[in-house]
Amino acid sequence: MVQLHVKRGDESQFLFNTTVDAPVETVVQQVTAIYNGRLKVDRICSEIPELADHGIMLPSNMQGLTEEQIVELKLKDEWEDKCVPSGGPVFKTDETGRRNGHAPNDKMKEVLMRTVEEAKALVSKKQVQANVCVTMEMVKEALDQLRGAVMIVYPMGLPPHDPIRMEFEDREDLSGTQASLQVITEAECQLWWAAKEMQRGKKLQDYTGKNEKTKLVVKIQKKGQGAPAREPLVTDEQQKQMMMHYYRRQEELKKLEEADDDSYLDSEWSDRQALKKQFQGLTNIKWGPR
Description:
five-stranded mixed sheet; 10 helices
């Protein structure tokens, strides 16, 4: 299997397994679906704590109004009596005026928050460090977990205007939000590797060869944004090691200048090839039996 390390800019997103025979168009479709699915999970996970703290979303004509203004305008939330959390509500005013303040009790709140953590972990960017590939099945599982938790706490469901329900039903309106800038539709999605765009109509092997054990760093990009920045030649970890090496060398040079002797010639750092040997794993080599 060919493993793709998908990035957006310099930020790792997820690992994805495919084959060299896969058409680029199919890979783009699958990568885009997982990428946008992870964004959906993140949006729901960011909204559920608000649901747990302050209850369901108010209708748009009641949001941001004070109690006095609602009474004066004779407005009523018809979903307040229909969408009651299991175990009864606990009143907690929403200072932003977006939600009705009838929050779930502590036990139900714990169900929601625990599920949020589990869903986040399933599609987390940390899966890259753990060398775990994210699949569309994992994204769907995370969404099902979140949907199930909301159904447990709100058996009668959420109002149709609640953003969490809209996300579950794929009716979300992201226009004018920061989240809309992150979403990449399939039609405008491009995959770049080695400063080259992977053209639809070709196969992956046209770029990578026929070796199924290849691992590539590909960057997902919106059409029209140009080529993404190249990957750095030195990783952050390697750069840290180099900086530590040079710092130790400078400290030893300072001490030797004070001592004014030639003992530094016996030091490891005096070897000009030391850094190269360290990166190539050639230090501490002994000839003969151990």
